[in-house]
Specification:
alpha+beta; three-stranded antiparallel beta sheet; 4 helices; 37% helix
Length: 126
């Protein structure tokens, strides 16, 4: 279910780094592409995250393949509910629902705020 909070007004994709979204309620989020790829909602990626595998043996991609996995070629809207990102390695099966992007954006902001506070708390006094 889409509410005003989960309706994007503006979506900007930095193909090498991040996805920036400005929501209808004025909130803005920046999500690193690594976070989005790690949480790809397609069935294949969900199976990999759950540990399910035909052979039980993990296949580790080369360093070049890993880089292409977290860099985007583009993105397109899917209906009025989501966004499909095409990754440089060709993967494009996942549809990122706006509600999930909003939730991940809030979590990422909280994590970034906590990390910044920890750095401030442990910084030496000058």
């Amino acid at each position: 279910m889409n509410t005003e909070a989960t309706q994007p007004l503006e979506i900007n994709l930095d193909r090498a780094r991040e996805l920036r979204i400005r929501w209808a309620d004025g909130v803005e989020h920046t999500l690193p592409l690594q976070v989005l790829r790690k949480h790809c909602p397609c069935a294949e990626c969900r199976d990999k995250r759950s540990g399910w595998s035909d052979t039980g043996l993990p296949v580790l991609p080369s360093a070049d393949q890993q880089l292409r996995m977290v860099m985007a070629d583009g993105a397109e809207l899917v209906g009025r509910y989501g966004l499909r990102i095409t990754w440089q390695d060709g993967h494009q099966a996942g549809i990122y629902e706006f509600a999930a992007l909003r939730k991940w954006g809030c979590r990422h902001d909280q994590t970034a705020d906590s990390a910044a506070a920890a750095r401030t708390d442990t910084a030496p006094e000058t």
